[in-house]
Amino acid sequence: MIKQNEATFKTIRKLKELIYDLAQFENIKTTFPETEAIIDGAKLENVDEVDVYIINGLKNAWLKLISEEHQYIDPEFIKEINSIVGKNLVLNAGEYRTKSIGVGEVEELIQPINQEEWIDNIQSLNNIEYPLERAINFLVFSITSQPFWDGNKRTAFLAANSVLISNNIGVLSIDKNHLIEFNVNLNKYYNNCSDENLNNLLQTLKKSIDYTEEYLKRN
């Protein structure tokens, strides 16, 4: 059952755009019109099969997200989302990572996070009073922790949006025009977890939210 609030309806109206934006983290080659067609169920020639799996995984994850209430961060829901976005792409979708990995321009290998530590951190984040801060701080923590084998950015953005939408704040998406800014700020924070770098990253996220009228009136 779809949640009945302004943020949910905003998400539904923008769903194809949201799927396309989030898929950009995977460097898909499909255009926006091709992405729309795939979402609508069309079978296109000369489109990478991996791109189709990524797009359909995001579609299914967004639909699950708007059908459930998650005002707080739910570890089991996060695992479900990772399992959905990783379907047909990785063998161990939805499973916590157990080996060190390298990420892009990050200088050091990222160690696997202990499951107990992961849960403890989520509980601490759930103690943040304001849902907006709760959501975006979780997003940063989740991406930089890389808890899963694959799909960590997609999973983090979807899980953060579950909190934003359930609390009728709005919907968060990094469009192509702001993707470089986000990635630059994220890499800076990866390599130097200073308060300044964290604040710059959080500000980029905040300005990428399409806020509901209700939230803007309250704030």
From TrEMBL:
All residue ranges annotated as the Fido domain in the record: 73-214
Pfam families hit by this protein: Fic
PROSITE patterns cross-referenced by the UniProt entry: FIDO
Protein name: Fido domain-containing protein
